[in-house]
Design the sequence.
């Protein structure tokens, strides 16, 4: 009897700890959503704006939109957001852009005279997020949009097969880029997991192999995205070569990410470059239940929040660059945005990471 009582008490204790952790992450998630609604939401366009100091701006940010959709998919999976709310945002954010095939294809982010600007990195990450949205809803509109964007990039010649192989950075710079190629691998892997069409397995393999050739940058975040791509392909195919590649990339990503946290070098310690490592780590944890992956994921998330309260986040959001102590660096700018101004991509990244953490015990 006594053993039974002790067992029950232990179970209740574990459940209480898990509930407290979920409340913690949900509180930070709600605080971030509050910040975005009060400082970045344009009710007229039904979109989040690029930067918090221009809440009435008409446009948004193609990269930030993608991260919000990814965050929404995590929230829908954990019943923290209604599927129709995610669908509404998908529709309003997609309407901001013309497409390369009229109502379909890759998003046209800008124009230079007669030339259109399409981002390989932007749209391949968008494809990956759309496939995540499809996975949690089975709504074919997301799959159709992802397929048409992927095909649009192929038709535009975004795949480069030379001494440097991979997916082009953008329409004006056709060099293979680490983030584009990594997200090309992840989009292909998710297509393959969903459709079981071997052509996507071939695209995933080609993209992963291309990362062994020179790229315009190949940073820890990109390595983690590629690791996630290889792992996703392995899970769908049971091909051990993909698993080996996944673990190789994972080790490189974590080692590089931990080094970046400690280095006295600005420009890399922000949620999208550092925090995003947690996304892939939690996927490895979900499948393997190896606690080290969850611990490492929380390390990268907590770097930005272990000294902050929910009320502080709701008032100030997140910034573009941080020092090695996790304090914002407010001098200079990042991607043209002053470091004193919260930028949609970085705020949305933390929204996504809190959604991931809230969904785990």
Sequence:
């Amino acid at each position: 009897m006594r053993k039974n009582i002790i067992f029950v008490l232990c179970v209740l204790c574990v459940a209480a700890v898990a509930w407290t952790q979920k409340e913690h992450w949900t509180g930070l998630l709600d605080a971030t959503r509050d910040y975005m609604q009060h400082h970045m939401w344009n009710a007229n366009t039904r979109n989040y704006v690029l930067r918090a100091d221009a809440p009435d701006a008409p446009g948004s940010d193609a990269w930030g939109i993608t991260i919000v959709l990814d965050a929404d998919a995590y929230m829908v999976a954990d019943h923290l957001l209604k599927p129709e709310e995610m669908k509404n945002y998908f529709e309003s954010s997609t309407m901001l852009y013309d497409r390369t095939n009229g109502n379909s294809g890759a998003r046209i982010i800008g124009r230079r005279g007669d030339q259109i600007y399409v981002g390989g990195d932007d749209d391949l990450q968008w494809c990956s997020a759309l496939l995540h949205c499809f996975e949690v809803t089975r709504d074919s509109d997301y799959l159709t949009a992802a397929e048409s964007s992927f095909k649009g990039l192929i038709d535009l010649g975004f795949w480069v097969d030379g001494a440097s192989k991979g997916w082009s950075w953008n329409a004006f710079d056709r060099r293979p880029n680490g983030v584009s190629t990594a997200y090309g691998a992840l989009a292909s892997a998710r297509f393959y997991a969903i459709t079981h069409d071997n052509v996507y397995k071939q695209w995933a393999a080609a993209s992963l192999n291309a990362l062994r050739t020179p790229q315009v940058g190949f940073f820890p975040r990109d390595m983690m995205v590629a690791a996630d791509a290889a792992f996703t392909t392995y899970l769908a195919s049971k091909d051990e070569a993909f698993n080996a590649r996944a673990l190789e990339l994972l080790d490189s990503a974590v080692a590089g990410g931990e080094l970046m946290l400690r280095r006295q070098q600005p420009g890399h310690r922000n949620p999208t470059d550092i925090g995003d490592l947690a996304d892939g780590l939690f996927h490895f944890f979900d499948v393997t239940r190896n606690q080290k992956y969850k611990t490492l994921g929380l390390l990268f998330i907590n770097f930005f929040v272990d000294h902050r309260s929910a009320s502080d986040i709701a008032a100030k959001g997140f910034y573009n660059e941080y020092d090695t102590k996790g304090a914002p660096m407010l001098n200079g700018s990042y991607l043209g945005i002053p470091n004193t101004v919260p930028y949609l991509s970085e705020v949305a990244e933390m929204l996504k990471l809190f959604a991931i953490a809230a969904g785990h015990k």
